């Protein structure tokens, strides 16, 4: 049975749209844990467009499940990971202009530096996962780095047309098989939704799915009615209080 890592980047996206203090992703991480999240995932991007350093520091202190830090393989991020020691680091490719992570890492193309980085993180007691496309060539390169986990990129499956989805699912299933025969543990994520998650969750050997956008979208749907009704009650029946200065003297 796969476990669920909840990615809370989109909570931070809403906060950063106003550069204010709400919604605070740290609060929502705790709510996600109350809802049964087996882990909390955040992506600290080089441009800090959503998650901030302060978020990761606080999450490290309060998350009681597992903290998975997605990051690019850069010296800056390595230093942060070694200082904060998340339970897991997931190395992802990062391009400044992308809206979200667009594909898996090219592990074969940067084998030596990745191997060295994986070694340093693992020596510090941090689990390391590499976010890759479900291709034998990439999975073999992952094994050669010494990483224990891979996260299979499910974005292509998620975006595939209805008629192509079985083919993309078969690729993920085969990728999971190849990874496990190489001794790697298998997670997956990106683009999964309430509609398309089940076939991926049922892939043999799947350990954890990292899911963000669709959960935050669903939370708006199931929570918006109450949020509006609470605000309407305040607007219709405001407190009148001389301390506010909203009553005539
Ligand atoms: N896994 C990785 C490596 C990601 O980069 C992301 C997006 O930040 C996710 C999982 C979650 O993707 P989504 O928000 O589409 O569920």
Summarize the structure.
By secondary structure, the chain is of the alpha/beta class. It is built from ten helices and eight strands.
Q: Can you walk me through this structure?
A:
The structure is a single chain. With 249 residues, this protein is an alpha/beta fold. It has one domain: Alpha-Beta Barrel (TIM Barrel), CATH 3.20.20. The chain has 10 helices and 8 strands. It has helices spanning 9-18, 25-34, 53-62, 75-84, 111-123, 136-145, 155-159, 165-181, 197-201, 213-236; strands at residues 3-7, 39-43, 67-71, 88-91, 127-132, 149-153, 185-189, 206-211. Strands 1-2-3-4-5-6-7-8 form an 8-stranded parallel β-barrel, surrounded by 6 helices. The longest helix is centred in the C-terminal third of the chain and has 24 residues, at 213-236. Pyridoxine-5'-phosphate binds next to β8 and α10.
- Average pLDDT rating: 95
Basic shape: globular
How many domains, in number, for the residues?
Answer: 1
Strand order of the largest sheet: 1-2-3-4-5-6-7-8
Major β-sheet annotation? 8 strands, parallel, barrel
What name goes with the CATH superfamily?
Aldolase class I
**H/E order of the elements?**
EHHEHEHEHEHEHHEHEH
Please outline the helices and strands.
Layout: E1 3-7, H1 9-18, H2 25-34, E2 39-43, H3 53-62, E3 67-71, H4 75-84, E4 88-91, H5 111-123, E5 127-132, H6 136-145, E6 149-153, H7 155-159, H8 165-181, E7 185-189, H9 197-201, E8 206-211, H10 213-236
Helix pairs in contact: 2-3, 5-6
Pyridoxine-5'-phosphate is lined by residues 7, 9, 43, 70, 90, 92, 100-101, 131, 151, 189-192, 210-214.
